[in-house]
Amino acid sequence: MTHLESYPDEKGYFGKFGGSFIPPQLELPFQEITKAYNEIKNSKAFLDELQYVRKHYQGRPTPISYAKSLTQFCGGAKIYLKREDLNHTGAHKLNHCMAEVILAKHLGKKKVIAETGAGQHGVALATAAAYFGLECEIHMGEVDIKKEYPNVVRMKILGAKIVPATHGLKTLKEAVDSAFEAYLGDTDNSIYCIGSVVGPHPFPMMVRDFQSVIGLESKEQFLEHENRLPDNVVACVGGGSNAMGIFSGFIDDKEVDLYGVEPLGKGESLGEHAASLTYGSEGVMHGFNSIMLKDEKGDPAPVYSIGSGIDYPSVGPEHAFLMDKGRTKVGLCNDEEAVDAFYKLSQLEGIIPALESAHAVAYAMKLAATLSKDKTILVNLSGRGDKDIDFVIENYPIANLK
Ligand SMILES: *Cc1c(COP(=O)(O)O)cnc(C)c1O
To answer: HSE (CB half, 13 Å, CA atoms) of 352?
Structure first.
């Protein structure tokens, strides 16, 4: 059996990680979602519909590009990019949003509810909801609403209702709390669409399955380029969906090294970063057991990253499991390295990456320099950087570049 077939188990566990820790009122609705998903995941009608929208609406397959100038600049291993930035809406998130909304339709729901950090999940879900004719309600931290304003406007134009999360640090974690609460009040009409491989079972499995298209395409496309598998695959990890998506194509190929890159932000102290796998410990948050960053009381710690889509104090349970098993490795990238990679990729390759994706690029650049020229690195370029350009140019002017 392959890894994807073997995990998670029936209760949603990847080893000791995952599961479902939810209030009793949510048990039935989540069982309903699990049952519906298990019924349709292999149905021809569902897969045909998904394949149709991916090809004729979303822009898949996305290409793999050889980053020749970046490779020469780093002076080591060859760097390739899986171009998830070329998805409609500009990131990998539409991969699971289109599928989640098809599932919602199948369940007869009228409305989709979700949280968003950088606004990318919100835009993707609002897009899918518009396409399929469902209502959409997006919860977003007040701080992120200010920082990611262009995406807020996009969601509103697409017809979504925005609900600001005004408590605590007013970022992604608070948005999740707020969205959960709204869903609890309206489980009959609505469905909660999680934005990553996190949350209670079945979401880590479902979102992983929907994102696995990245890895399955990549494997075939990389063989076309190099006639062999990549030596290394690198992806940034917030909740972990784009990373699980690309890893899915290679987990059973033991010769391929898999790197999840976490945001080191401003430094190693608690509150300055969001590197859950690196500095966290086992614990339950948002309904699942994983490796999380805790404060002195054991509650979710405050986190920070320049990439607002990756500042989350926990991580998908499958990542915790794969790291624990030694199958994946974890890399780090701080704000400054991410911004440097943001400019390098823009100026050397003509691709402006999302700040989240720039973390993976920065780590790949460091890794490439340590490897010989016959080695290869495949980077998942999870999204494009249009949403970040105002923030970057204001805070890291081009003149300051080394
Ligand atoms: C949301 C987002 C991420 C982080 O989410 P994962 O679930 O860790 O993939 C990374 N990159 C981009 C461009 C995003 O929008």
So the answer is: 9
